Structure formats: C-alpha cells, structure tokens
Amino acid sequence: MLLNQVLYNPVINWIITLIILFYGPVLVVYLIFKLIGFQGYMSLFRFIEGKSIIYRMDPRTKILLSIVVTTVAAITIWWISAIMFIAVMALYALLSNVKEKLRVALPLILASFIGTAWTESIFAPYSYLQVIFHHVTFLYVFPQSLAVLGITQGGSGMFYVPYLGYVNNPVGLTWEGIIYGLQITFRAVAAIASGLLLIFSTPPSDILRSLEKSGLPIELGFTLLLAVSSVPKVLENSMVVLNSLKARGGVDFRPRSRNPIKFIAESLFIIRVVVMALVSIVILTLRDARQIAIAADIRAFRAYRRRTYYRDIRMSRIDYITVALLIALLIAGIYISGLPGMGGPCRITHDNYLNIC
Amino acid sequence: MAKIIKINNLYVRYFGSDKPVLKGLSLEIEEGEFVLLVGRTGSGKSTLLNVINGVIPNIISATVRGGSINVAGRDPRKTPVHEMAMVVGTVYQIPESQIFSLIVDDDVAFGLENRAIEPEEMRERVVESLKLVNLLHKMKHPTFLLSGGEKQRLVIAGVLAVKPRILILDEPTSMLDSIGAEQIFNLVKKLNDEGLTIIMSEHRVERVIGLVDRIIGLKDGAIYIDDEPHRAVAKDLTKLGVEEPQVTTLYRMINKNSDYYPISVDEFLELGIADKLDVVSRHKEDDGEIAISVNNVRFTYPGSAQEVLKGVNLAIHDGDVASVIGPNGSGKSTLMYLLAGIYKPSSGSIQIFNHDSAKLVGKDRVRLIGYVFQDPDQMLFSSTVKGELEFTLKLAGIHGREAEDRIRRVVNYLGINDLLSQSPHKLSVGGQRRLVSVASVLVAEPRILILDEPTRGLDNEMSTALMDLILTIKEERGMTLVMVTHNMRQVGEYSDKAFIMYDGKVAFSGTPEEVFEESHRHPEWGHFTTTGL
C-alpha cells in the first residue's frame, strides 16, 4: 500500500515521531511566549484592587484553597478533578477586570493542558492503559529503538496498527493514551487555575507577608520576591542581547546550508552563539548583585528580629468559614478517593495487580 | 550653623591594592548645605560617600585609617549600616537594584517594616514620602512600569521614609534621560530647601551648579577644590576632568584672567558682553550621496497594538554626523533598530546607500552598517577581546589574512593592542570595555556607524577622548555617523545635523543651532539646550 510505504518509510517515520514527541513541549513554549509574552507577564503582577469576597480573604486562606484543590484533584478520579477545575474557574467571576486576567490565564491553562495531555498520552505506561481501558488501540507506531532507549513504553503482544497491519510489541501513540492524558490533565489545570486565582486576587507582597507571618523564613521570601521582580529585567536584557546579535551580523538562528557538513557546522555555530548570548544575559542580570545587597542592608533588611507589616493580614469570618469548607472538601476528597473506582493514580495492590483508576 | 559631618585626616585603602584611594582627607559640612562632589572616575568620590554612610568598612571591606569621622554625632565605622541609614540616606546609580517590591507603596514600606515601625505610623510615612517625591498618584503602580526618573524618585522616597538628616546621592542620574535627571535635580533642590543636607556626586555639573552651595573637587584621593560655585569654576574645574558650564568656558575665552566667572546664562548676559560675540551658524551644505533615506516608515512591534513609528521621513548624507534626540519613548531606539535591520518597517521603506534595506541581509548589511549598543555588556560575548573581533568578522564573512589585517588596524586605531588576549568582561567598565564594544563593530569597517548613547556613564574626560577618537576614525575612513544621545553638548559640538524625534515622528530637523532654537518653543521635547545660547 502506498500510504503504508509513505507513513512508515524509516526517515518519514522518524520525522513524524520527532514531531509528535516535541509537538507538546514546543507548543507550550510557543503559547506562553506568543500569547502571553512580556506584556502578559507584566499583567500577572499588575495587581488591580477589587472589592469582592475573594479580595477580602486572607492570603493564607487562598493559599490553603490552592493546596486543597491540588490535593483533592490529585487523589480523586479525573472527573472530580474536572469539577474542581470548573469550580475554580467559576471563582474567576469574582475578579475585577476578568477579561484581562483570562487573557493571561487561559493560554497558561491551555498550555499546561496540552503539555500534560500530550506527554501523558505518549509516555503513559502501556500496562496502565491496558488495565484502565482493557483495550489499547495504536494509532501510529514509533521506531522500536525508542523503546530500547527507554524513552517510551510499548505494548506486549500483537497489535493491529492502521496501515501497517499486525505488529509485535509496538511503541507509539495510542487512542487510549490520548484519553488518559486528557483525564490526567484536569489534575494539573485545577492546580494551576487555583494558583493563578491566588496571584490575581492578592498583591504579591501580601502573599509573601502572609507566608512570612506563617513562619516562612524572611530570607526565602525575599529571594522569591527578587526572583519574581527580576524577570522583567531578564526578559528585557534577553531582547537587547538578541537584537545586538542580529545587528552584529544577522545571526538568524536557522542553519540554512543544504550541504550536510556545512549544516552541522552552522548548527554548532548557532549553539555556540546561543550559549554566548545566555552568558551575556546572566552577566547583565547578575552584575548588580552587590549593589542590591548593599541597598538591602541600608534598608535594615534582617537587622532586627521583630518586623511589622505594612498591611493588616488578619483572618476574618469569611476566612474561618472558607477554611472550614476547605477542610470538609479535603476530608470528602480523601473519603471519595478510597471508594472503589474513584481514586486518583493507579496503585499497586497486594497481589501486585493494578487497581482500577 | 552646626557641623553635621566632620572628617579629619582620612585614609582609605581597599584590600588587595597598595595605593590608598583617599589620602589624608579632611572635611566639614554644615547642616542644610548642598554639596556637589566632582572628580574623575576613580578619584575617590564614591569611596568618600560610602565612608560617610558606613558602607565602608562595614559592607565593603577596606582599611579606614586616620583621624576622626563624625557624622551627626556617630562614628560610621562603629555604627551598623542600617542605624547610620536613619541619619544618612543613600541613593545609588542604578534604580533597579535599589527597588525590592513589585508595587510602589510596598517598596517605600520595605525599610519601615524591617525596622518594625508601627503599621499606623508606617502608612502615614509612606504617604508622606510619596507626596514629597510626587509619586502619590502612582502609589499602587507596579514598580517595573515606572520610568527611570520615577524609579529613582521612588528610591528617594524609600530613603526619606526613615527621616534621615543627610541625603547622599552617588551619580543618581547617570542612568536617566534628561527629563528624568531634571526631575531628580528639582526634587533634591526642594528637599534641600526644606532643610535636608545634601551631598551629591554628579557628572552633569552644568545642570546642578546653579543649585548647590559648595563644590568639592577630588583629585587622586585628596580635596583639590573646595569652594562656593563661582570661585570653584574660577579655579578651573576642567583640571579635574569635569565639564564646566559652557558660558564659563566662553567667558574664559574672552577674558582670560578674570577673577569672576559666570555659571549661568543670566549671569553671562548681565556682564553685557554677549553683544560683542558674533554668532556663526555652521551650515554644512547637503551634498554628496545620500547614505540613509527613510521614507514614510511606520512600525508596530510584533504582538503589540501601539504604533511606535508613525510615518518617519529623514535623509542623512554620506560623511555626515547626525544626532537623533528626543524624550524616552519617542521612537529613537526603534528607528535605530530599523536602520540596523533588526526589524523591518511595517510600511514605508528604508534605503541604505540606495539598497533597499529590507533586502539587505547578512554580510552585505554588516559591511554597510554597524551598531554600537548603549551598554558594552549587551554586546560583548566572547572570552577574549580578539575572539570578540573575530566573531564579528566571521559573521561578516571575512577570513584569513584580511581578517588579521583588519583586527590589527582597528586595535591600532583605538589603542587597545595590549588588551587582545584579555576577557572583555574583566576590563574597566568605563573606558576600555566601551572601546572594545566600538572595536567589535568597527572591525567590519562599515560605512555607517550607529552609536546609541556612546558616552553614557563615562566621565567628562573619557567622553571627550572617546568622541574625538571616533570622529578621527570617521574622518580618516569617511564614515557616516548616526548618534542617539541625551548629551546636548555632544550634539552641539559634533553633529552636522540633528533630528528631534517626538511621538513617533521627526518633529524637527536642522543644524544643532536651529534645533536648539526651535526647542525653546516646545518644552514637551525635553530640555535640549545646554546653555540657552
């Protein structure tokens, strides 16, 4: 068959395989950079005040919310995670300027959705899928050497593969893998959505203040703050360094030669240039470290044991009610996860057979 | 008035160096004084300031010997830095490395939280400090979206919140454009009028000389000049590598042995000698080939909705020195990016020596147009200076003997022969690193050289030396120079033509004299005149 010869020609097979393998991660990076970009990152921290209940909560309550949502999503069956995700998204309605928030949140959520789903669908162990779905349908088969290298796990036995016929111990993309990936994904996005909710509804320094109040060492909080606030500078530096490389002689980061030896030489040169650019960006970012340290000392950072807080961070009635609800949710989650067929990830039982997920 | 700072016979030597930076320096400053500290890079200005606030020897290790240091009744050597900061507030060069929070008011509160000030009082002080620096309306703004001048004002607010009696500013405007610098100078003057003692080191002497009570000039670690501004300029600041006001220079030319020198345009005019001057306007005929022609160029950054260039038209002739000036955000850098081929215009066209810029790629472009970035660290990538030059040549497709010849030529021109095997990142920040960044572009021998703020952060002497060098090479090689700058003295001294960018367009163009004159009618363009003459 013609299609068989085209699809499974060794070179084309490898190309398709590599595309499938890298499609997920590359798309994630693309989505984050193209859709969110510098402006989006900025708006993550452009905290806008609001009056709704979510803004009045103590940051610690919101931190607990994301911890509980993440935990429950992780230990229960996928559709409960999906419900949690939808519930968290419903809370977004309480944010002011929702549209701008969603413009940043949706690509991030979509990116983690695709990222997780895609990775899980290729890398999920075949034996898991067999247990969950009782049947595994291969859509496209990768070269066997991937399994030998331990990159992916293959099926054991004979499987029918479209356009290829029966294959012994194949590795590749399966229909069940995709479904499993999508299910698993709800755990990831529920966690991310609740984390973003915290960031959107709380000024960043209040998150740190509340963490410090609950015992996080101030040094750690300060380091986190510096890391977050240096990102705009790092992005800016990266842009300038790339521009200066372009101005220097049109380094376009794409090997163009058709001669294989020249192609490799060009690629190596590009790698060298990328490393040089990274070194430059690091130097630009770190060279002011000493001055930062001096400025922090001058402003009495860590000079006294006692610290006061610019904003009152206090638990109110809403917080106590929310915390109670969250604890109830956590207990319910733990209980549900113990019920047959309602648990999260597969667990191995005493007779060494996989439980139903 | 009471002396707030008394320093007697001070010696400072950094570890690992055998020469002291400060040698037997003695100094007294009165409460409420505004002192301007000047001198070459390395003359000991920063060291002196860091001794007053106690950073030396408490944070930066150094041997501090000699007599007494008394700052508002304390010895900074024996007082913790954060306690000294309650008396002496310090503002350094780079605003970004002194801002720790993402939101404006949080940053002002940072020092107060650390000092466990009660929340009620803290909130009052935050508002009060922001009001002082005129940032109250941006209280909830993200810090990273502030302009350079606003950031530095925020730093000052954070320092003022602990109510110091002395404010130290170590070249606070070297990273700012002229509008930002003006904001800082006005603010500092206002604070001084309210009674704060100010000690500021600054290269833009011309802009502040009218504000200060006293100038202290350091030379090789000792006080060389310590006087009221008029008498200080009479002693000739240029010997300290410091630029003096242009009216002073002008008056010195006319009246060599005067004991009084004007420091402002008004004073100069009062002397009644302006009529004796013939104003000669240079006017270079627009002849020769057109090197750069920009036709109705519009540009929007990818992924942005805001148009940055809104129909730019300009022509620069071969062999000219053209300056592009204008406030930050007016589109100057973007225009340079387009000229250098980093981005392509959204519409309109750019011709470089009659080649369509959009079609000019790779080697052909590198040999026509070179771009020296503002900050040498943004364009130095290799582990040796030689490697840096070879990198450019490789990109320009020049190999072998020709490459060797060119490297030899450019290092001879710039006098950096002995640096070839050194790492560019270990060279001195000021002069040498800058020279290497210029060399790394010049080695491709482009016909057009773009310079973005070529002398930013350099002291007056180094700036002049670098500019003279570049101009000499330009003359010998017949290059065209396009220079983005905030330094109006450079515009006046070196350019044949200046273009004012404002709001994405060329708002005006002409000889520097015409541009300075026109700018009087347009305060929104920024402060373009150096002296008003």
Which properties best describe this structure?
heterodimer, A: 357 residues, mainly alpha, 2 domains, two-stranded antiparallel ribbon, disordered C terminus, B: 533 residues, alpha/beta, 6-stranded mixed β-sheet
Brief characterization of the structure:
The complex is a heterodimer of chains A (about 350) and B (about 525). Chain A is mainly alpha-helical and about 350 residues long. Chain A has helices at about 1-5, 10-45, 55, 60-75, 80-90, 100-125, 125-135, 145-150, 175-200, 205-215, 220-250, 260-285, 290-300, 315-340; strands at about 140, 160, 165-170, 170-175.
What does this structure look like?
The complex is a heterodimer of chains A (357) and B (533). Chain A is mainly α and 357 residues long. Chain A has helices at 2-7, 10-45, 53-56, 59-75, 78-91, 98-123, 126-133, 145-148, 175-201, 204-213, 218-249, 260-286, 289-298, 317-338, and strands at residues 138-141, 158-161, 165-168, 172-174. Chain A has two domains: 2-202 and 315-354, no CATH class; 228-312, no CATH class. In chain A, a hairpin with a 3-residue loop joins strand 2 and strand 3. In chain A, helix 2 (10-45) runs antiparallel to helix 6 (98-123) and helix 6 packs antiparallel against helix 9. Residues 346-357 of chain A have low confidence and may be disordered. By secondary structure, chain B is of the alpha/beta class. In chain B, the strands form four sheets. Chain B has a six-stranded mixed beta sheet, sandwiched between helices. A six-stranded mixed beta sheet of chain B has the order 16-17-18-13-19-20, with helices on both faces. In chain B, strands 1, 2, 4 and 5 form a four-stranded antiparallel beta sheet that branches. In chain B, strand 17 (448-452), helix 17 and strand 18 form a beta-alpha-beta unit. The longest helix of chain B is centred in the last third of the chain and has 18 residues, at 460-477. Chains A and B meet through helix 2, helix 11, helix 12 and helix 13 of A and helix 3, helix 4, helix 5, helix 13 and helix 14 of B.
